[in-house]
């Protein structure tokens, strides 16, 4: 999979826009996008030198969950410890509150870690994008400073959520008001989520090509079928608990491959 027989060059987005005259049909590239994350996984499994970098998101997630849980439990113990030492009739209730406090600390830690693990791992994921690009013969792309990569990843994620959340909330309100429309609203919410995930992961190869928000929207418009297929595949994987984070490095590699191959057409 690392063969460079079919060499692909990652030119700046503006250049590619002028080179590709015809707009591909939506259905023509859907299957290509659908299998791209799995191509990324195949490349990762066959590239031991990338395994260490690919583990960064899970390491960051584990550290954040551990620190967050430790801090939350310490806070619960600080608040309830003195009361438990002098509890009489309320001892059992305080113990129940204590356990609930521990569970709440764990829940908050996990949700926070899921939110922050990807942006904090931004430089490592961009490194994977560069490696995958070179593996398929792409032009070497420059490194990104740590904080620049981290904040750009967070900014892109928030922009995607800003566009997606109102749509999902609106569709949810519609299906509550008119339950029969659930057969329409549920697929639409899934598509909206899939496009948000595609936007999020395509950020890595597109940002390394100095593509701004408008250029990224233009790329997705011109390769809508590929982007949708890619997002659908990632969304299906994300239905399995924690699978989305585990699959994140493969998704980034697949996104890099998809951008390169889509722009070749």
Q: What this model shows, in words?
A:
Mean pLDDT is 79; it is low at 1-22. This protein has a domain at 13-48 and 122-262. The protein has 265 residues and is mainly alpha-helical. The protein starts with 12 loop residues before the first helix and ends with a helix. It has eleven helices and no strands. The longest helix has 32 residues, at 146-177. Helix 5 (91-120) crosses helix 7, helix 6 (122-135) crosses helix 11 (243-262) and helix 8 crosses helix 11.
Query: Total number of β-strand segments?
Result: 0
Structural class: mainly alpha
How much strand content do the residues show? Answer: under 5%
The percent range for helix content is over 70%
- The stretches of 5 or more residues where confidence is low (pLDDT under 50) are 1-22
Taken from the alpha-carbon principal axes, the silhouette is globular
Number of helices: 11
Q: What gap, in angstroms, lies between the N and C termini? A: 20 Å
Biggest sheet descriptor: none
Q: SSE order, as H and E?
A: HHHHHHHHHHH
Query: What's the alpha carbon Rg, rounded to whole Å?
Result: 22 Å
The whole-number mean of residue pLDDT values reads 79
Compact overview of the structure:
The protein has 265 residues and is an all-alpha fold.
Map the helices and strands.
Blueprint: H1 13-19, H2 26-45, H3 51-54, H4 56-85, H5 91-120, H6 122-135, H7 146-177, H8 182-207, H9 213-222, H10 224-238, H11 243-262
Helix pairs in contact: 2-10, 2-11, 4-5, 5-7, 6-11, 7-8, 8-10, 8-11, 9-10, 10-11
């Amino acid at each position: 999979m690392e063969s460079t027989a079919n060499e692909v060059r990652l030119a700046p987005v503006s250049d590619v826009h002028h080179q590709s005259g015809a707009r591909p049909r939506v259905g023509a590239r859907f299957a290509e996008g659908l299998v791209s994350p799995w191509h990324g996984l195949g490349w990762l499994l066959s590239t031991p030198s990338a395994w260490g970098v690919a583990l960064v998101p899970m390491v960051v997630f584990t550290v954040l969950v551990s620190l967050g849980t430790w801090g939350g439990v310490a806070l619960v113990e600080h608040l309830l410890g003195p009361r438990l030492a002098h509890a009489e009739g309320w001892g059992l209730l305080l113990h129940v509150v204590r356990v609930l406090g521990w569970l709440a600390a764990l829940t908050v830690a996990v949700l926070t870690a899921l939110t922050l693990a990807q942006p904090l791992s931004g430089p490592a994921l961009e490194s994977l994008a560069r490696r995958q690009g070179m593996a398929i013969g792409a032009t070497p792309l420059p490194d990104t400073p740590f904080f620049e990569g981290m904040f750009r990843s967070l900014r892109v994620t928030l922009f995607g959520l800003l566009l997606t959340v109102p749509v999902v909330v609106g569709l949810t309100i519609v299906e509550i008001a008119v339950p029969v429309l659930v057969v329409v609203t549920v697929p639409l919410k899934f598509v909206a989520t899939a496009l948000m995930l595609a936007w999020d992961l395509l950020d890595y190869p597109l940002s390394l090509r100095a593509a701004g928000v408008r250029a990224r929207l233009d790329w997705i418009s011109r390769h809508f079928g590929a982007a949708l297929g890619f997002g659908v595949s990632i969304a299906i994987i994300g239905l399995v608990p924690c699978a989305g984070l585990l699959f994140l490095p493969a998704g980034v590699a697949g996104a890099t491959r998809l951008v390169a191959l889509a722009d070749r057409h």
